[in-house]
Description:
Elements: H1 15-29, H2 49-53, H3 58-98, H4 103-116, H5 121-130, H6 133-142, H7 146-159, H8 164-172, H9 175-185, H10 189-202, H11 209-213, H12 217-228, H13 234-248, H14 254-258, H15 262-268, H16 276-287, H17 291-298, H18 303-310, H19 317-333, H20 335-343, H21 346-356, H22 359-384, H23 391-396, H24 404-418, H25 421-444, H26 455-463
Helix pairs in contact: 1-3, 3-4, 3-5, 4-7, 6-7, 7-10, 9-10, 10-13, 12-13, 13-16, 16-19, 18-19, 19-20, 19-22, 21-22, 24-26
Amino acid sequence: MGKCHHHPGxxxxxxxxxxxxxxxxxxxxxxxxxHKKRSPPDQPPPRSECEYKKPxxxxxxxxxxxxxxxLSEDNEEEEDIGRKMQMLEELKRVVKCLQSxxxxxxxxxAKEVRRLTxxxxxxxxNLALLGAIPPLISLLDDSQxxxxxxxxxxxxxxxxxxxxPNKAAIVKSGAIHKxxxxxxxxxxxxVAEAVVANFLGLSALDSNKPIIGSSGAIAFLVKTLxxxxxxxxxxxxxxxxxxxxxxxxxxxxVFPILETDLIQxxxxxxxxxxxxxxxxxxxxxxxxxxAEARKAINSVPDAFSMLIDVLSWADAPGCQxxxxxxxxxxxxxxxGDRQAMIEAGVASALLELTLLGSTLAQKRASRILECLRVDxxxxxxxxxxxxxxxxxxxxxxxxxxxxxxSTVQLKDRMEDAMMSxxxxxxxxxxQQSLQNNMKRIVKRANLPHEFLPSDHLxxxxxxxxxxxxxx
Length: 471
């Protein structure tokens, strides 16, 4: 059993210490529930070791420990409340700086907002509630200093991180048009990069997508994407592409996208594994909305060859699934696109994908193949069954008195009409081989001449698809 200890408590002692002291006191002074051996009536019950060592006044000490523990917890709560009040006062001071008429104070306030909201979600909410957003947006057009512009843009960017109400409030305050005006009137790579980052964050909210798309931001993002590809960093290129993907999710933004040359540009970049999946995601979003989007894809030279090549990227199943979706939609919508796919060699790639692709890619590949098969069947039916007159009338309503030989002849003519030149040549070689084999067998057996193949046998062998000879 542990010995009982008394510690001169104080308000600064950690609460864990008091809990440990209370447990020790309970072990020594508290009653146990274990089975106790009964003593004879004439003897007093045995006393435990702790009871012998229990000092006088231990009950008072236990109550003191409990009181100290409660005081310590109250102090911790008071300290937490004190910290929150101190932070709130600091946030109020920052907002007051933003609303000041002193430009240097406003700049310091914007920098403080950026710092305070970098990792603190509660600060983002509180600053927005205190009114930090309007002065930050006003700073975009009240100043001609790029340092102030960059500070304001990144402050707004941090305010919008994982905070949908702030995203909506920034867009409703007219920030998008001010940002576009800023990059037009004060061209600066750092400012443009900050604007792109803001468009990426703000476009993540669905209600913002149509507003940003109709503002002219798509043309700016496409222009930035193409310029970045030539001279500046990859992070801005990635942000531009991701922002365009966010905007392409809204059907209302498909036509603004088609007004640019984005489709043609990203198709030319298909094959770069760093951006290919994002490119295919954009194409998936636009191809199912408008026929103009499908025409834009089809207008790119070797577009189907490039998409079919993606189907063989076994190490990129996401790309395979997206490419198969694009091909599936285009095959379903257009006969001309189906023919272009067949000419580009889509069949073998689809067959391989149905065997080796992911579950989703296999399903989509099977649908494309079914679409191509049904289309081919319709074409055959139109060519040989629906042309009106001629063979169609003879085949569709045979007379009951038609003889066996005439039926065979009709079947031959139908098969010949539906058979390609290559298959005809193969069939002719098979027929000649069967007849030559029969002649050699008869000659070796010294059979009479009447056992040579008759005309009727030749007819049967000509119409038979089996290698066995029907006697």
